[in-house]
Please model this.
Amino acid sequence: MATNLQSAFHLSQLAHPLLKASGAGNIVFMSSITSVVSVNTQYPLYSASKAAMNQLTRNLACEWAKDSIRVNAVAPWFIRTPLTAPSLDDENILKEVLNRTPMRRLGEPGEVSSVVAFLCLPAPRFLDRTGDLH
Model:
């Protein structure tokens, strides 16, 4: 909880005055699909902390809209990283993940960072003030 939720809360509180002074700002939290879909039972606190982060995203989006600060979260499925490698080395887990993935492949870090970059551009202003998951 401290790493996933409390750090996001405290850092956003510290950033708020700076973002407000800039006249427009963006916060994009990294959530997880496990916050809305049960993937397995190995990491219940991780899933719960990401679900709480989703609610924090919605609350801050509403609260800080008046300050022209957009708050969103990206909730990716399994992304090929060193952190996911140990789980995905298990053939049964990899098979389950791929079977539950419409494209039948793992995501790549660049695909997630592209979504984050898009959300920080001026163009998707309509996506602000909603606290949506992307």
In short: The first strand starts at residue 25 and ends at 30. Strands lie at 25-30, 69-74. Helices lie at 2-22, 44-64, 85-88, 91-99, 109-120. The chain has a mean pLDDT of 89.
